[in-house]
Design brief:
The chain is mainly α. The protein contains one helix and no strands. The longest helix has about 120 residues. The radius of gyration is 53 Å and the shape is rod-shaped. The relative contact order is 0.03. The model has no long low-confidence stretch (mean pLDDT about 90).
Length: about 130
């Protein structure tokens, strides 16, 4: 029986144990490789997400800057147009006042002449 135990141990159990240890090592190695790959993939995903967020933030920042510049340009154009309109209205008002004053003077002169003519025709003589 001892010989059978020794034979079984050397011919069957030791090779079987050796194969089981090698398999266990291969499984452990495969698990470590899978964990390493998972860690690397997760790091790559996080880096991709970070770069995507940074690029998106840059695009939004550029859009905000362009929008701000457009609004400033628009405000500048509106202010310039408003100044031009105010100047045009001011100039037109001044011209109109001048024309009104000239028209009043002309009416006053015409009224005096007309009054003299009316007095002359009605009275038949010149007024003072």
């Amino acid at each position: 029986m001892l010989i059978l135990s020794i034979l079984l141990d050397r011919l069957l159990l030791r090779p079987l144990t050796h194969v089981m240890r090698e398999r266990d090592g291969a499984i452990r190695s495969a698990r470590e490789l899978a964990e390493s790959s998972r860690t690397k993939a997760q790091a790559a995903t996080e880096e991709f997400d970070a770069r995507t967020r940074a690029a998106r933030n840059d695009v939004y920042k550029q859009m905000d800057e362009k929008r701000r510049a457009a609004l400033e340009r628009r405000a500048s154009l509106v202010a310039e147009t408003r100044r031009e309109i105010e100047q045009t209205v001011h100039d037109a008002t001044d011209r109109l006042r001048g024309q009104a004053a000239a028209a009043r003077q002309q009416i006053d002169r015409d009224a005096d002449t007309l009054a003299a003519t009316i007095v002359e025709r009605v009275l038949g003589r010149k007024a003072f």
